[in-house]
Specification:
Order of helices and strands: HHHHHHHEHHEHEEHEEEHHEEHEEH
Helix content: 40-55%
Largest sheet: 7 strands, mixed
Radius of gyration: 24 Å
Strand content: 5-15%
Distance between the termini: 77 Å
Bound molecules: pyridoxal-5'-phosphate
């Protein structure tokens, strides 16, 4: 039988698309058009672009749509409604930009379409995961042999680290979680700083721990867990510390926390989503002093390092503990010495996100990582100085990439932030700090220049004046 006879017209079209590449040329020219206009446009989409999104709102189409039309719809109505995160003046949340080398590598990896679950599914991905594991352990100065699992972000990485810790603690109680489950198990003690990230709470909930079970340690004025207020620790304690407070950028006193935990045999997980990168740079390393004494760590490559979304990493000192917590077996899964990424993560099939991580680290090198980090910190300090000089109140010690800013009254701060967001020259989010509303600046993109900082400071001054006169 002729295979062509079996192929549907749709399949024939798709095979042609792979052959003549016209579709990919179209996507490429749209992407270039996007990049070429990125810096000139509003950082946050305006009202008309947002309104046009309703064009996507339709019932599931009954029939195929030509691929060219699919791309046209995305570019015409999608591109203008994106947030210009890589344009240099986006300071919202703690969202990084994406380095060109990493983006380009991702394009290629998308064409590869690898499944990162098993080594036998993709030898190249397994190799790059091993390499990145070693590089990260070295960059952060963690104990050799530390295992890395490559996940979508820190939220998942924290879940993995805490799962490993929970299982290890239960094992020490003589309780086999895999066999007997969590219900009826001895209760680990959970200890968090007052300002632990929301994702830590979510992970705890998914792992079977409720709010009432958590012992909360007060924080100091910068949001750092107060080591002098830690309760007495023992081997049943699962303690979460923070490298990089999501508002102030401050770092918990990791050395003292880890010292106390080690003595007691407690498990320490460090949420280092954006801040663990401080350990990779000579001039900021002091902020993470003692971090290597923890048991597990979560970190994002898509924030400070500027890999594209979604690249997060769980690191675990005790490889077997992570493997055990993520244990999986099936008749068709080969068991062996090779590196199978899925054994270190909750997911099975995963995209080859490590390609972007590898490309980012390889293209930057140690010197490039330092250059990036020092630039982010320098811009943040500059924001602090210039905004203070213009009469704004800077409420945190700017130790890393986060700056918290307020006007003279809470109402004026809130109105200034709203005007800043309306104007579109830059984008910052808001938060509450010591009970008052503040504007939160996160310098997280490689693309931000001195000029972007100046333009943004000017936008703050304008927004405050307009807010005052309204
Ligand atoms: C961003 C962040 C997280 C969550 O990371 P995701 O990559 O968004 O999952 C957790 N903790 C801190 C401190 C963060 O800044």
């Amino acid at each position: 039988m002729n295979s062509c006879m079996n192929s549907s017209p749709l399949q024939t079209t798709m095979l042609e698309q792979l052959n003549d590449k016209h579709l990919f040329d179209l996507a490429r020219s749209q992407a270039y058009d996007y990049l070429d206009t990125l810096r000139a446009r509003r950082v946050y989409p305006g009202e008309s672009a947002l309104a046009a999104l309703s064009l996507f709102h339709e019932a599931m189409p009954p029939t195929p749509c030509p691929a060219e039309e699919v791309l046209r719809l995305l570019h015409t109505h999608g591109s203008p409604a994106t947030v210009a995160q890589s344009a240099g003046r986006y300071f919202g949340f703690v969202n990084g930009g994406a380095l060109p080398a990493a983006l380009a590598a991702r394009w290629l990896a998308d064409i590869w379409d690898q499944n990162a679950a098993l080594s036998v599914m993709s030898p190249v991905v397994a190799e790059l995961e091993s390499v990145c594991e070693e590089w990260l352990v070295e960059l952060f100065g963690l104990p050799s042999g530390t295992a890395a699992g490559f996940v979508g972000g820190s939220a998942t990485a924290t879940l993995c680290g805490l799962a490993a810790g929970r299982d290890k603690i239960l094992q020490a109680f003589g309780w086999d979680l895999g066999a007997d489950g969590l219900f009826g198990a001895p209760r680990p003690r959970i200890i968090l700083g007052e300002q632990a990230h929301a994702t830590v709470w979510k992970a705890l909930r998914l792992l079977g721990f409720g709010r009432a079970q958590v012992e909360i340690v007060p924080a100091d004025a910068q949001g750092r867990l107060r080591a002098d207020r830690l309760p007495a620790l023992d081997a049943s304690c699962l303690l979460v510390a923070q490298a990089g407070n999501v508002n102030s950028g401050s770092f918990d006193p990791l050395k003292e926390i880890c010292r106390r935990a080690r003595l007691a045999g407690a498990w320490v997980h460090v949420d280092g989503a954006f801040g663990l990168w401080a350990a990779a740079c000579e001039s900021t390393r002091f902020l993470t002093d003692g971090v290597a004494q923890a048991d597990s760590w979560s970190v994002d490559a898509h924030k400070t390092l500027n890999a594209p979304y979604d690249v997060g990493v769980v690191l675990c000192r005790n490889r077997d503990a992570l493997l055990e917590a993520m244990r999986i077996g099936a008749s068709y899964i080969p068991d062996g010495e090779q590196r199978d990424g899925m054994r270190l993560t909750p997911e099975m099939s995963r995209r080859a996100r490590v390609v972007e991580l590898w490309a980012t680290l390889k293209s930057l090198g140690r010197a490039g990582v330092t250059d990036l980090l020092e630039r982010l910190c320098r811009h943040a300090r500059r924001f602090g100085q210039d905004l203070a000089a213009h009469g704004f109140r800077v409420l945190n010690e700017v130790v890393f990439n986060q700056v918290l800013v307020a006007c003279d009254t809470p109402a004026h701060t809130t109105a200034t932030l709203a005007q800043l967001q309306r104007a579109g020259e830059c984008w910052c989010g808001g938060t509450f700090w010591q009970g008052e509303p503040v504007i939160r600046i996160s310098v997280c993109s490689w693309a931000t220049t001195d000029d972007d900082v100046q333009r943004t400071v000017a936008a703050f001054v304008d927004a405050r004046a307009i807010a005052a006169s309204a």
